[in-house]
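FAQ: What does the model actually see?

It sees only this:
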Amino acid sequence: MAFFPNVRLHVVTGKGGTGKTTVAAALAIALAAEGRRVLLVEVENRQGIAGLFNVAPLGYQERRVATVERGEVFALSVDPEEALLEYLELFYNLGRAGRLLRKLGAIDFATTVAPGLRDVLLIGKVKEAVGRKRNGVVVYDAVVLDAPPTGRIVRFLNVSDEVAGLAKAGPIRHQADGVMALLHSPRTAVHLVTLLEDMPVQETLDGIEALRAAEMPVGAILVNMVREQHFEDAALALAATGSLNLTSLRAGLNAAGVDVTAKAAAVLATEATEHAQRIALQETERTDLEATGLPLYDLPLVPERVMLGTLRLLADAIEEQS
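And it is asked to produce this:
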């Protein structure tokens, strides 16, 4: 079964430090592996996607960054100034004049003093990519948006409210209404990335509540950096109490052909206790996430340096659970 097969726009958000961009990239690869042509978009100009795919910094033009089995992943970094220039050209035919305004600093001024306009332009470009067709056929089967963190996601997506004071009618209002129609439709899903830790989980729960209050379509919870349980349940429970018998531990290791000193055995016991307590914490936090009723996808803890092979490992985990 495919990951949310009827969704065209996958919005990925999460608390800072949870690996949001990495998971968004992995999701794009997972969707491409299903034979899709996928566009991966960033809107914060951090060039995180370029680093993950080991390519030159992304610009406003879409560029292929990976070929996955039967599918392809393209990527784009949406710049608000470029988006405004494109908007002026599209609706007001101000091509050269728009470039002159940019030189005079008017474009930067407009996108700075009117953050609601900035967000409309950013998401408007994403909307255009979702609906774009060539010879009657959609260009991209799916679009993955690496969106701002959970704490800002509702304000970022709720562009209708953001432009209420800017425009009551006209192209800007029409653009905002079109964006909201897409964001509130079954073609969109907002996925949340979290870790099984107290603060990320709480921010995820708060984000879900805020998204639901705004009537945004919430998709899945992508649980990143899940630690594998290395002990059987009984041993795990004992280790969590910090009551491991060092003599027995050392004897067991020696019997297995691992010669350790008493000091090394004590260090291993401490690490075992920390691991067991971490696993116990994970399960407690998981219970809170399960209570949301949303599907959970576990992504394994991977080496700190993320490369294309690592992204494929995470993508495989998403595919296996779909």
